[in-house]
């Protein structure tokens, strides 16, 4: 009978101290009954590797002798933790260690992440206020064959964060753009929301302009897919007031706050309940807000009062009668001519002739 014992070589082992390979080395002893009696076990090194050749995050001495390793030149979009520093992949760490430079929104913020993982790659600030000035110099470095990693303060670059424009420029210049998947707040929130994940629309941050914001909410309110928004905490009350007015108080929703962090919170209920719950309480931290899609059975004809309210709100925000009618008709089963007739009767815009209506 053959018996084997596997144990990892420690840093105090003479043979371990001379290893320069990035592979993990282990000592394997095996004995047969005869050899056991001779007390003469055989030992040999065993190593494991993979095509991606990851660098261990535990043993900092096992780094590739080549700075770039197996990575090709290009722009690497690296997902980083949205809260918990453990939420980062081995591949992401390898790319960040191997890159010639790391583009970061806030170098001080990202510096903490790099310090935590003993990554000494130079940082260069890249954010919405300087991305236009940085783009050409970054493209030149990429054309010269450098490896450039792009990270945001949290999550996946280019998703409501800087990066999408640089990625477009690289694609146009035939420069490789390589995604390194990682955390994303809206995906994490959706997966744990309890709402439908079969189809969803990621809206992100709403426009600052009240009229544009209302228009976007009206479009979302009439979609069957789950709607996902990023909401600054100081604007939560405004968001709930406007969305409940357009979606209705009975639409189910989920507020996901501080995902993966110490004070992570998932609040579930209806928009009406949310408006009451957060009327005098302003949560802190990053908020991802999800609203269920419009039920397929919801095809009731809106009342004249509802139509008048929607039309009046749009017109008061600067829309022409024709434009207001188009927006309201898009979310209603009623014919546009019927809505236009109501608009003429209520608001007296006789100059917008009916020939504008299909």
TrEMBL record:
Residues 75-274 form the Tetrapyrrole methylase domain. Keywords: Cytoplasm, Methyltransferase, rRNA processing, S-adenosyl-L-methionine, Transferase. SUPFAM superfamilies: Tetrapyrrole methylase. One of its GO terms (biological process) is rRNA processing. CDD domains: RsmI (cd11648). One of its GO terms (molecular function) is methyltransferase activity. Its EC number is 2.1.1.198. It is an enzyme of class 2 (transferase). HAMAP family: 16SrRNA_methyltr_I. NCBIfam families: 16S rRNA (cytidine(1402)-2'-O)-methyltransferase (TIGR00096). This is 16S rRNA (Cytidine(1402)-2'-O)-methyltransferase. It comes from Helianthus annuus.
């Amino acid at each position: 009978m053959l018996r084997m014992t596997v144990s990892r070589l420690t840093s105090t082992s003479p043979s371990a101290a001379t290893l320069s390979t990035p592979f993990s080395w282990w000592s394997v002893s095996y004995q047969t009954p005869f050899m056991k009696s001779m007390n003469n076990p055989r030992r040999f090194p065993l190593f494991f590797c993979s095509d991606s050749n990851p660098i261990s995050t535990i043993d900092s001495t096992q780094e590739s002798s080549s700075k770039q390793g197996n990575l090709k030149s290009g722009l690497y979009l690296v997902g980083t933790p949205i809260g918990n520093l453990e939420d980062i992949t081995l591949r992401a760490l390898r790319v960040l260690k191997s890159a010639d430079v790391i583009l970061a929104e806030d170098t001080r913020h990202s510096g903490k992440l790099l310090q935590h993982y003993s990554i000494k790659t130079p940082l260069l600030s890249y954010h919405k206020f300087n991305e236009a000035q940085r783009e050409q110099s970054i493209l030149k470095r990429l054309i010269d064959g450098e490896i450039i990693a792009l990270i945001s303060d949290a999550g996946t670059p280019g998703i409501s964060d800087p990066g999408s424009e640089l990625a477009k420029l690289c694609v146009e210049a035939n420069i490789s753009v390589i995604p390194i998947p990682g955390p994303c707040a809206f995906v994490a929130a959706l997966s744990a929301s309890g709402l439908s994940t079969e189809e969803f629309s990621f809206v992100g941050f709403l426009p600052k302009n009240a009229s544009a914001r209302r228009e976007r909410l009206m479009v979302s309110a009439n979609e069957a897919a789950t709607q996902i928004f990023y909401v600054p905490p100081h604007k939560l009350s405004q968001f709930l007031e406007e969305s409940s007015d357009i979606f209705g108080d009975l639409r189910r929703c989920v507020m996901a706050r501080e995902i993966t962090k110490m004070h992570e919170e998932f609040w579930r209920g209806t928009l009406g309940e949310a408006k009451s719950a957060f009327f005098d309480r302003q949560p802190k931290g990053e908020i991802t807000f999800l609203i269920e899609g419009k039920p397929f059975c919801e095809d009731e004809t809106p009342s004249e009062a509802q139509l008048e309210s929607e039309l009046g709100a749009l017109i008061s925000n600067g829309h022409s009668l024709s434009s207001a009618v188009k927006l309201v008709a898009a979310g209603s089963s009623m014919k546009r001519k019927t809505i236009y007739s109501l608009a003429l009767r209520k608001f007296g815009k006789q100059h917008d002739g009916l020939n504008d209506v299909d």
